[in-house]
Amino acid sequence: MVKFSVVLLLSAVAASAQVDWLPAGLPPPAKDGPTLCVRDYLTPEQGDAVLQAATKQFDTRATWASYADVARRKIQEGAGLAPWPRRTSLNAMLSEPRVHDGYTVQNVMFEPVPGVYACGNLYRPIRAPKRAPAVLATHGHTSGVDAPTDWARHGRFHESVQRRAATLARMGAVVLTIDLFGYGDSLMQFGAAAHRRPFSLTMQLWTNLRAIDFLASLRGVDKDRIAVTGESGGATEALLLTALEPRVAVTVPVAMVSSYFFGGCPCESGRPIHRSEEHFASNALIAALAAPRPMLVVSDGGDWTQFTPKSEFPFLQQIYRLYGAEDKVANVHLAAEGHDYGPSKRVAMYRFMGAQLGLKEDFDESHVALESPDAMRVFKTPEEIPATALRTAEAAEAALRDLQR
Predict the structure, then answer these.
(1) Residues near 22 by Cβ (< 8 Å), separated by ≥ 6?
(2) Domains, the chain
């Protein structure tokens, strides 16, 4: 009994040592159950104070690497992905390509978990190099679907998603756009309410990991040049994926890297990925886990990224400096703009992706043909969903947990 007590004491001390660098005055951890960091969990001043403290605490590559190892483990655990699920056959299916000016589009689906169909669109350059880079394009939160006309502004069908995917393809990249859980074709399979469950964070992260598997499996894709970009909730997806997936070589998170705002949807902050007895990780700290891989942070003056040039970006520069890679991280701040992935944000992304992935410098979006949601959907009607499909979020979660046994 004495030995057991000593072990518990030593474990408690070790856990405490992982977070003793945090400044005073932060919200206390939850007394019962996990600590969830929702929306503006900190004030801007508190968020900046955390980054200042982290800069002092992790002042060598070794100290940062030690923190990064713990943070990655706690993100995996907090997301509900420890142990890692078994990777089953993706059973990917692609439609016939639709040909546009310089690129093609296919509808695609694969099974990250048996019975769960992740759907999206695959954009390819018509004149692709022998080894083309690939980009996973995640989308943020959009309005729901209450009428047929709402589909055109929804999820991956939104014009901003189509424009950036098609333009990157015309520049020479293979691009996959993919639904949030409970959006698009996934909405038809599971219903919109599935997205508001904490499990959506788990499912989206696992789906994006399997999406990298899918892209890496495509003939002609350069497995060493895979990138990810997304805005808002899609940027949260990009940050988490990059933190846990070393195959992501380039990252462009848009309108999300903040020291004090942690995401307002359960798919971003519904699970304890940010804080535990062993770690604390704001989105700025999670973004730093990309170092020394190239990353462009796009921020604006109309949301929680308003202080990025003075707070989050200098911190990121310092972490990259530990690796001798300060030139690999950049920030484009658009002070007069708001929370979106609009034209000027896309141009900033195109320039960075072009330089890092060796793409053509052709950012002209006028060649993009906006497709209808009907053309882009995998399932045109609910009746087209395979009979083997799971139909509730609870069933999807049970199937994923089976892969962890």
Answers:
(1) 50, 53, 280
(2) 93-384 (3.40.50.1820)
**Average pLDDT in the chain:** 95
The pLDDT, as a whole number, for residue 275 is 97
| Both tokens assigned to 197 | 């469950």
Model confidence, pTM:
0.95
Q: For residue 353, what pLDDT is reported?
A: 98
Q: Which two tokens stand for residue 289?
A: 């886990």
Assign 105 a pLDDT band (cuts: 50, 70, 90). very high
pLDDT at position 130 is 87
